[in-house]
Amino acid sequence: MNNTSRNHQEETDSRYRVGAVSFFNARPLIYGLDSHPRIVLQTKVPAQLGRDLNNGDIDVGLVPSIDYQTSRSDWLILPIAAIGSEGEVLTVRVFSRQPLNEIDCLACDTDSHTSVALARIIWHLQYSRSLTVKPLKDIKSEPAVLLIGDKVLGQLGRWPHELDLGSAWTQFTSLPFVYAFWAVPAETNADSPAEILQKACRDGLANIDEIVGRYAGQHGFDDEIAHRYFTDNIVFDFGTRQRQALTRFYELAYQLQLVPQQRPLRFCPL
User: Which of 54, 61, 115, 166 has its CA 20 to 30 A from that of 155?
Assistant: First the structure.
């Protein structure tokens, strides 16, 4: 093998397959990754990313936080950034034609895992009710639905009753909420793309105006709502309070038998 071929092979071998959420809220976390020489970026709905990580189709994934507890294999968390909120999140919402305290069954967006568990916890905390959930097929025929991501915008103000699940969680726990974080398989070696992902997030947060200008319309946001979304709704921090929030979320999910276990938070050494 000549030097050119060897160098090409080494470059290919050192590339990371990164799976990220396809919604607008992930744009700052993946800023510049689509053109990074060491990253092969895939964007999918949240529910697919945990499966891809388990199947070995990606090396690192921006996975739904509840999947950390339901995954068939162990993961390590990269404590570098997350998709979270502290108060209203805007894009995780229950819409209902009946009063919220009368809902027994919720038709849930099939793109979501974490928000389904969160809704069931909120109904336990706020209404002392068990909530049955089913996949959402036809929004027009359902009395109550849970939607996540960009599709929420088209339903705002069109239903008699709405509940923002980020607001409800923070009201009852006084904690932020973490919807998704970066994770790698537990058997991964120390060489992870954490540094690349950290830089992408720093650069993304420093270039919100550019992100809004390029992508807001593609995701159904106007510029004003998009700016407010990134400044008032979505929180990308992954610090002590976010870890406390995750632990509380997992405790409640386990107590309500929504997950089969309560794995402790395990972080990839950086």
Answer: 61
